Amino acid sequence: MSTKILALDTATENCSVALLVGETIYSRSEVVPRDHTKKILPMVEAVLKEAGLKLSELDALAFGRGPGSFTGVRIGIGIAQGLAFGAELPMIGVSTLAALAQGSYRKTKSEHIACAIDARMQEVYWARMSRQNNGEWLATDKECVIPPSVLVEKTENDEVVWTKSGTGWKAYSEDLSDLSISVSEGGVELPEAQDIVVLAQFEWQKGNTVDAENASPVYLRDNVAWKKMPGRE
């Protein structure tokens, strides 16, 4: 029986939705920095209609859990929780940094990705990801939020050529040009739900789901409050 997972992401300027049905992915994506709330549900309706499915017929609902824009992450998880509650679907949170890595692999086939999302406040959300034989991604650096100048000091050279991915490379190009690692161009700048849904399938197969009331964001900054859903402790 085909696995059916819906994924949505609003953690960055990009607003995207994807529906995985077996090996087929239906997707919508648009860069709309201030219109996520207007765009996301029509995108959900569009991919479900294209696939000929109802929300209640799906197996799980995946979402970009962050890091990313605080408002964007909250919008995404709030809408995802609402849909999951209504259809009684389990949820799967996927790192937006891992989604960047998957997107870069989809575009370039590079298996070593240096992900940097512009976190504002002179910082980047950072992680280096390496693709494993089974298609999953392993973070060789722990996901973090860090000033580019500090990242330059802490990052040691290795023998890997890392493909640059994310908005942080352009936003802090001068500082990050001093990194001692070898890098190449060609990655993607923004995460997409079509890559989130691919990664969500791995978590689904391992049984790594949560109930809607327990789904939570990852901000990486400690000074951000998350308004809990009813019933959350």
UniProtKB/TrEMBL annotation:
Pfam families: TsaD. Gene3D superfamilies: 3.30.420.40. InterPro entries: ATPase_NBD, Gcp-like_dom, T6A_TsaB. Residues 30-228 form the Gcp-like domain. Belongs to the KAE1 / TsaD family. TsaB subfamily. This is tRNA threonylcarbamoyladenosine biosynthesis protein TsaB.
